[in-house]
Amino acid sequence: MEEVLAISNQPSAMELWQGIGGHFDSLGQIVNEFLDNSVSNFAAHESATRNILVRLTEQTAGGDVVVTIEDTGTGMKDLDSAFTLGSQAAGETPLNEHGFGLKHALASANPANDAWSILTRTVDDLNLGRFKRISAPYDIVDYTGEYCPGTEWPGHYNGTGTIVQFRCSREMYRTLGRGIRGGATAFVTLADILCEDIGFVYAGVISDGIASITLSVEEFEKNPFMRPIGAVEPDWADWLGPGRGSEDYDLGGGKVTISYAFGRINSKPDRIQFDNSTTRKYYMRNMSSSGVEIRINGRVLCSNLFKEIWGIEKHNSYNYLLVVIDLKSQNGKALPKTRTSKNGLREGDAKLEALYAWIRSNMHEPQKDVSLSDHETDLFEELKTRMLQYNPDPNKVIETEMHVFTSTGNAKDRVRIDLYEKTQYGVTIYEGKRDSTTSKDVYQLRMYWDGLVYDGITPTKGVLVAMDHPDSVKGLIQIVNTMKDASGNNYHFETKTWKDCGLDLTSR
User: Fold this and answer.
1) What is the CATH number of domain 235-367?
2) Terminus-to-terminus CA distance in the chain, angstroms?
3) N- or C-end of the chain: fewer Cβ atoms within 10 A?
4) Is there a cis peptide before residue 137, judged by omega within 30 degrees of 0?
């Protein structure tokens, strides 16, 4: 008879705490997790006031920072579920999808498990003149909080609500500035970055009136101040494809409303502190702020998508493009699955793949705007595509990876031609500049020509391409065309504009 084998698998609370921390890339993502809980509560309950206050308090100059998130929600009613890992019983909307967020965020913000607290007050608590407090350290066995009767509520707002407070290290606070050119370390500058981040992540929440978010900044030994956090929104130039609208659609788990906008954007004004109509990070018409952005009920989950949807790499020529998708539903089973830290969507999820397919059905593949290309290499790639499409010669060879001086045997001698074209009419080589050519470009073209001759190929024509060619360049070409190459043939150079080649940069 088989014997029962007992297994003791109760984890150590501290080891568990340290294990579940580190799921977030920055303090901003941690703050978002707590904001999600407040927004979820507002979405699930009718409320006359829907206010959230985010307070940043510098304890000493250059020292730790105390972060406080306070809301005017209904308060936390099921504390048992809220503090149980993986429990979704207290979840009110899809923002509470996993049952890990509160604990993950606290563990990431305060790895030492020694400087955090949650105060909450429901209607019943308010009527009884008390609130509840749960504080560090987190534990698993015999974990307790406390009732606080007759104690003054320490929040900014009166009434019901919840206050989350934790102390984070200066190193954690500085993660707000990660990725900012030139770096950012000043307390107020980092607070401004958080202001912009929140305004971007919760733009739909703010603009739809689901929540009003305020930032309080308390720099050490300086006067504190408060600023409303406005929605960070794109400046649309015009619409593409289906334009702007909404559609009820079943991604595989029930219908959701897809609110969409396909368009071109203008660059936004340079950042003015705490003014979210300006920007330092978002909607800048660059490679890091274009592409597809996906939100759920106004909250951004991922952005800057290209390859995931169309299989194409980010490129300057797509900088104009923005596609904003906002999936609206309170049915979590109808929505794509989010990552546990809610800093992205889970790749491979069937509903996410269905959404990608829906996007492709409305925009098969974005068109490049070559006027945004920052190098003539991009323009020659565009020109190559046009030549391959419109040149009827079935034996044509058109390359942007053709090298010359290959027969020297030394790889360092090899030089790449901007564009190589071989047709029934001969071999044409191209050298170009986006704007204007100089005398050096003439000699670059001559080097291509001489390299082909050295490799045993007879070129027919060399073309110098740019928006403009000064008279000095045209005069030099006339002189070079009187000379002979190593095979005894005259050089045959000419100038063309990008418009002559079918690329009108001024009209794009």
Assistant:
1) 3.30.230
2) 81
3) N
4) yes
Fold (CATH) for 372-507: Trna Endonuclease; Chain: A, domain 1 (3.40.1350)
- DSSP for residue 345: B
Q: Do domains 13-228 and 372-507 have the same CATH topology?
A: no
Q: Distance between CA 318 and CA 312 in Å, rounded?
A: 10
Phi, psi of 217 (to 5 degrees): -115, 120
Q: Among 59, 44, 273, 38, which Cα is nearest to 157's? A: 38
In angstroms and rounded to an integer, the radius of gyration of the C-alpha atoms of the chain is: 31
What are the structural domain ranges in the chain?
13-228, 235-367, 372-507
| CB within 8 Å of 27: residues ≥ 6 apart | 67, 109, 168, 172, 173, 175, 176, 194
Q: Does domain 13-228 have CATH number 3.30.565.10?
A: yes
Calculate the alpha carbon distances from 397 to 113, 383, 428, 455, 460 in Å. 66, 13, 10, 17, 14
- C-beta separation of 277 from 259 below 8 A: no
Q: Residues 283-329: pLDDT tens digits?
A: 999 889 999 999 999 999 999 999 999 998 888 889 999 999 999 99
How far apart are the C-alpha atoms of 19 and 67, rounded to whole Å?
22
**Which H or E run includes 443?**
helix 439-454
- Work out whether strand 130-135 and strand 146-149 pair parallel, antiparallel, or are unpaired: antiparallel
Whether the Cβ atoms of residue 116 and residue 110 lie closer than 8 Å to each other: yes
Residues 77/79/85/89 CA torsion (nearest 10 deg): -30
Give the residue among 407, 43, 403 at the shortest CA–CA distance from 209: 43
